Fold each of these.
Amino acid sequence: MSSDKLLSISEAARATGKSIPTIRNYLDKGKLPNAKSKAKGSSKAWQIPLTDLVAAGLLDRVTTASEPATAPVSEVMELREQVAALTAENAQLRERLDDLKQSRADLIAAYAPQIETGQKQATRRSWFGRK
């Protein structure tokens, strides 16, 4: 978020985690001095600078576009460990799947001569006079 960005009341409420009536209360008490209202029909449309929200204690700070959002190093290290563990588990599961596929192929090859085809079944039924 840029420090010169202007927010509406609902955007300010979303950004701060406060309710719309709370933001209106801050406006009414003058705690957001640089906020400007524009007439929009019979109502007002507010433009609240982010710096006012920070000054009023509603936001911790304003980040600029030049400041990269960084995650704590410990969180990054923990995520890397999780990725490594999941990669190893994935490799084991792939090996197990390959083993199961080979077992299936071996079973099919071993029992193929014993499996009756439709033709064999028809021949057997004809021996007993059935169609």
Note: Strands lie at 6-7, 36-40, 43-49.
Amino acid sequence: MGDVNRQELARIIDANLNRAREGLRVLEEVARFISNDEDVSKQLKGLRHAIVDAALGFGFDREELLGARDSEGDVGRKIQGELESRRTDINEIIASNFARIEEALRVMEEFGKLISAETAQVIKDLRYEVYTLEKKFPPPEQ
């Protein structure tokens, strides 16, 4: 695993898995309650589950990920970008959550290569599915 230990990798995978799932959930709510698009809502839910399933391919179970989590001691916990604290419209929420998901998947892919090249490839493929979905994401109903 190089110079990164298993617990550090588990923390990285856990944080980014959570980040991706959270972003997908926000978009799922937009598709479901604002755009009223059942198909896209189902796609997002399916992606959320696929990402969790793929992450299991790194060999961490839920207990190990939770055990590696250090929310209180996380040095990045209170770091927040200026744009993160404000949103002016639904389109900013959509764009920021797609970016959050894509970045999280990229991190999981890169660090995942230290564990399993096959699983990292699955994560990469899921990232490209997110890129595709972003292009066709339904605009909010007016």
Note: The chain has one domain: 6-68+87-136.
Amino acid sequence: MSKPAVLSTRDLLLIASSVFLSLLLIAGNNYLLAKRQPRYGIVDIVEIYKEKESELALVALKKGATDQDQEQMRGIAQKFGRDLQAALEQLPRDCDCILLNRGAVVAGGSIPDYTAALKARLGAKP
């Protein structure tokens, strides 16, 4: 009959330190992954477009609107498009979140709404 193998103190310390190091690496990885969870925010693009549309309609439909008024309206609309694009590119960097259109969100009442912040960047009334 052979004798059972007995581990030395050195071997036990080596095993214990390997297990501890593995647990430390796993915990660190989980901590880093949890910090990188994406955050979401919503904006109501339709509401913003409707407000700008009604503002432009006042210019376009006013009695006695001239070609100059129409040209001014087109300029305002083009500037709004550029400003909206710039704001939609900057806002996610500032809030460190992924922006979703409100119409695309089916559920999720706890998602922060950044519509007012977007309107403020565009110079609109909140």
Note: The beta strands are 40-43, 98-101.
